[in-house]
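LOG
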Amino acid sequence: MFLPIVPGNEAAKRFFGRAVILERVSHSYLLVGPDAAASKLFARELAKVFYCAESRACGSCSACASIEHSNHPNVNFFGPPAGKSVVDIDTVRGFCERTHYRSNGLQIAILEHADQMNEPAANALLKTLEEPLGSALLILLVQSTGSLLSTIVSRCHRVYLRGGDDVRSVLSGSAKEAIEEVLSPHFFARCESRGWLGRAFPDEDGVRTAVRKLLAELVEDWRARIHGQEGCELDPVLRCLEALIELRQDLDRNVSPELVLERIWRVLRHGA
């Protein structure tokens, strides 16, 4: 059994199983999934395969044990510095430096929360992806590709992961009712943005604050929709999720909240 302790994600396990057997492992992968912990588990178990005595992440050999306890010299995790949410350039430089280490085996570097890189970090990573080395495997863990440079996405193989089985909508009751209005016929003809926001988030003060709250709930709700989806079914869900994440970035760039809200409505009605 390939990656025996990883629950679900059979399509992803089959994909990597074939790549390992046929010796067609790429130099870089994007693991896209709503559950950061589940993605990290998948990446760690995948790393074990390349050093496992049984080539399947058995969990009992010395190599698997060293990777499990984060002391294998050729398998390293990177992520935002302690107390911070942004992956900075120093973190990415350390991540990329692993590709230049000389060793008897594959250098595996795993970057958690890669969708939270700032611009200098993203540019530093892109340079490494453009000049890949055959002795390194780079794995980026993201919840969505929407905030990544398109050139980074194009240089990695994307593999989609499901999260856990317990999926619940995070939308508040008032937000659900307001979104039902958006989906009704002739919505734009009779809609008034401030009144609609007041019904969706009666406790929020100000248009920008209410739109930010709406986007936060919608992003988490669409991330939950990834659960149970595979293959082509994922595409429209991911397009909407990435459009919502981009709109959240627009709001942070001081784009008019009314314009952002109008675009949110169009995503909800017609997709990205």
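LOG (cont.) second protein
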Amino acid sequence: MEIKELNEKIHLESSFVDCLINEMKKVIVGQHTMIERLLIGMLADGHVLLEGVPGLAKTLAVKSLANSIKEKFSRIQFTPDLLPADLIGTMVYSQKSEEFRVSKGPVFANFLLADEINRAPAKVQSALLEAMQERQVTIGDQTYTLDEPFLVLATENPLEQEGTYPLPEAQIDRFMLKIIINYPDRNEEKEIMRQNISGNFPVTKPVISPDDIIKARKVVRNVYIDEKIENYITDIVFSSRQPADYKLKDLEPLISYGGSPRASIYLALTSKALAFIKRRGYVIPEDVRAVCHDVLRHRIGLTYEAEAENITTENIISEILNSVEVP
């Protein structure tokens, strides 16, 4: 397909994006980056981890997105005493029929909000892992395929570490994006305050259907990505693994492990989704740079030396982006 033709097709297919953003902005004040990243995760078919202190509208944003799409939404509050059956469901004996029947859990939804995911023990996290990766759930001896689209949107509180179970690397790598949510500015804070004390709290209404999302995902895959951009993505990921090869020898003692191959895949997919949101049929280097921190921040391991010097993955990613040659 020619770029001009692809541009026209994407301009037509992405028309719902503005409607969706405007609908969410009725409820969410500010937080434009968070809204955009949630849409990227949805369009690129990837799970999203939201990190921020309580009260920054993480849960509200996810609920508003689900309400805007006529999707089945489930929310589960993760706690240390949660069992896998509380999440995926279990076999229940029916006295009437004298046989076991399946009682499905909250994971059987299009949007699953996993609130404070790091509060659940390893058994529950591993049960969620199958749903996230395989898009299926096993109860007893039966395996059930989850409805499409299926998206896990998880939240975690970075302040409180007591009674939490840090997500293992294998699970955190399943999340396409990790979004850090910051405080609103003064004007946004005043608007939030007015909205909440007025009593007339706005509600989102459905503007698109799940079929529109599935259709849009196919179009996102067709967004053109040049080989030079592919090389740029590969250079970014490889410089997190072998910094000395990219004139970043200073980073070598600070990185314990670099981005996995999923980092390259997700950088390409999220760049395509961002180009789609911007109503463009091709990826530019700015798309890659825009999503790079969100894709890589949870995929780079820090050494004790880096932690001792208060160096974060944000610092390392910024250093990589400043050093790797832009095509």
